[in-house]
Amino acid sequence: MNSEKLSTRLDTVASFVEEGATLADIGSDHAYLPCHLVKLGRIQKAIAGEVVKGPYESAVKNVRKKGLSDEITVRLANGLEAIHESDGVDTITIAGMGGPLIASILSNGHEKLQNVKRIITQPNIHASSIREWAVQNGWKIIDEEILKEDHKIYEIIVLEQGHAQYDDLEMMVGPYLLDRKSNVFIEKWTRESDEWKRVLGSLENAGNTNEIIEKKEQLQKKINLIGGVLSN
């Protein structure tokens, strides 16, 4: 993967960045995503934020190599601290992290979001954490995607400011993904359901403490929720 040819995962994230956006890519790694979008002419300006020194240095080197130092500013910073008010950022991408970490980054940097129009997230696991954050913080889901690459399944959640409510099933699997029920969606949730059933079975002989009873109830609820989807 490089800025000319992104992975399918990052290319799908890029597809949700609107023409002319001012982008902050948080956890930018080699800055492949902002470099790609500037090279395409989709955006004019971007911030590439990275908290780890090694990836930060790789991003600086890559941006210089592409001759994009005037268009892309690389900053060593924790989360949304990479964004300065003078940047005029209206779009944020955060890809390749766990859902709870992404939600934490958004919560910790909430004051940076006032003028942001769109947040595009690609959680590796626990995407429901982002949906929960959105509902609690005045953001709504405007689109989602699910895809498979190199035997791994990824979800992408696109948020804009606004209010929406989702039921338990929609929070777990995503309202747009639930509506479309793609083959990858069915594969993911069949796999998840099988794992929940396996864990539930292993708990049958684990005693009846309050903690185990609660865990079994939670698992059974999730199995029942997704079972209704997979049986249709």
Automatic annotation (TrEMBL):
PANTHER family: TRNA (ADENINE(22)-N(1))-METHYLTRANSFERASE. Pfam families: TrmK. This is tRNA (Adenine(22)-N(1))-methyltransferase. Gene3D superfamilies: 1.10.287.1890, Vaccinia Virus protein VP39. It comes from the Bacteria. It comes from Sporosarcina koreensis. The lineage of its organism: Bacteria, Bacillati, Bacillota, Bacilli, Bacillales. InterPro entries: SAM-dependent_MTases_sf, TrmK.
